[in-house]
Amino acid sequence: MESKSKAAVDLQKEIFLGGLRGQRPVIPSEVSALRKLAERKLSAPSFDYLDGSAGRHHTNLNNQQAFHHWQILPTMLNDVSVRNIGTNLFGAKFSSPFFLCPIGVLELAHPQADLAVARACESTGVPLMISSQASTPIENIAGQMPTTPTFFQLYWSKSEELVASFLSRAERSGCLAIVVTLDTTLLGWRTKDLDHAYLPFLYGRGLAQYISDPVFQRLVRQEPPRAEPPPKTTLTLIRSLWRMASNFPGSTLQNFRTRSTLAAIRKFIEIYMNPALEWHDLNRLREMTNLPLILKGIQHPDDARKAIDAGVDGVVISNHGGRQIDGAVSSLNALTLCKEVVGDQIPMLFDSGVRSGSDAYKALALGAQMVGIGRPYAYALAVAGELGVRALMENFQAELELTMALSGCKNLTEIDKSKLHYRSH
Q: Which of 4, 35, 182, 288 could form a disulfide with 297 if both were Cys (CB 3.0 to 4.6 A apart)?
């Protein structure tokens, strides 16, 4: 694949020359400033759903603070006049080691949601992990990325028939691999969402993969009518039902009258989590697809060993950005533990807590082959749509390139643990 990443020096020049014409960057280059802009732009429930963490948010804090303990140890007088931040995975070439993590319900951030993100990915060559909880069907998202690889992130539901349908759709859409999320068989204790009493799925949001799926549609039609006492009619309830109806295919008025949206939401809630899964179940998943299987949510080195024994094709070292367990080990520390077990046997991808190109450098030095960006691109989407996401990825790529060169490396293969110093305090 031809490199689409913009050279760091060219991006700097573009920004500084733009300043002479009175132009400022589309988004701030520092993620904390971008986060503040996104918070001002979005409603509190929307922002908190995208930004929030489990419990007291300690795991999210651990994720970010872990990077401070690993300090870059540069070496001088290395020829870094020609630089390359490209990498390879499963036979595909990538212009940088970044990927965008699967984030559900992106319609909370921007009306164009996943489509805007996909277009930004296509223009920068950054692969996207398409979420099971996307606001847009997988086919439409992948269609925006004809030359840039996509992955499909799977929430393994209780309906194996639905899982098989999702996997088939991912194959037909040209996805490079299936990323199975293991850490969300139950929803974490997300305090901000609880305080708002807000779960977007109950409003029909983030369900595009389901309502566009023929198997799910059939499961909804087969659902027997329920004799439930009607809820007390309030203005809030009417507004909620109308919002649900507008998020489903067909006539909003017809959906509102028949309450068909409620049946679909009930079916989704009933089947989308499966806490009964065990390691031996991976054999059934392997039978459903020929695509490489990547397990996302690996944190314990014992699980890394089990993943290798199960014959999977890769792992993502991740704690879901701190959204599932409060007080869990940082994802970066989990990466160092799992690297001792995995070595070079299978690719290790990484996410959770990455807020800069220098963070990505440290993750690569500690054994990650590719590095995922999560919340920051949701902030960028909220602030400036497609252009914001594109600018964010260009910034991350440029900072990684400069950090690599200034530390004495001309390509990713030269980045290793010897380029870091650990400071415990």
A: 182
For 131-175, the DSSP string reads: -TT-SS-HHHHHHT-SSS-EEEEE---S-HHHHHHHHHHHHHTT-
Topology, domain 31-192+274-422: TIM Barrel (3.20.20)
- Catalytic member of 68, 110, 280, 320: 320
Tens place of pLDDT per residue across the chain (425 aa): 556 778 999 999 999 999 999 999 999 999 999 999 999 999 999 999 999 999 999 999 999 999 999 999 999 999 999 999 999 999 999 999 999 999 999 999 999 999 999 999 999 999 999 999 999 999 999 999 999 999 999 999 999 999 999 999 999 999 999 999 999 999 999 999 999 999 999 888 999 999 899 999 899 888 776 656 656 667 766 766 666 666 667 777 776 665 677 888 889 999 999 999 999 999 999 999 999 999 999 999 999 999 999 999 999 999 999 999 999 999 999 999 999 999 999 999 999 999 999 999 999 999 999 999 999 999 999 999 999 999 999 999 999 999 999 999 999 999 999 999 999 87
**Token match 């919340």: residue?**
375
What residues have CB less than 8 Å from 286, skipping those under 6 apart?
Answer: 293, 311
Query: Does residue 365 contact residue 404 with C-beta atoms inside 8 Å?
Result: no
Please spell the DSSP secondary structure of 101-137, one letter per residue: PP-S-GGGT-TTHHHHHHHHHHHHT--EEE-TT-SS-
> Where, residue-wise, is CATH 3.20.20.70 in the chain?
31-192+274-422
Tokens of 103: 């984030």
**Cα(165)–Cα(171) distance, integer angstroms:** 10
Identity at 18, one-letter amino acid code: G
| pTM exceeding 0.70 | yes
User: CA angle, corner 70, sides to 67 and 71, nearest 5?
Assistant: 115
Rounded CA separation 78/268 (Å):
56
Please, what sign has the CA dihedral across residues 265, 271, 272, 275? positive
CB 187, CB 273: distance < 8 Å: yes
Q: Is 110 a catalytic residue?
A: no
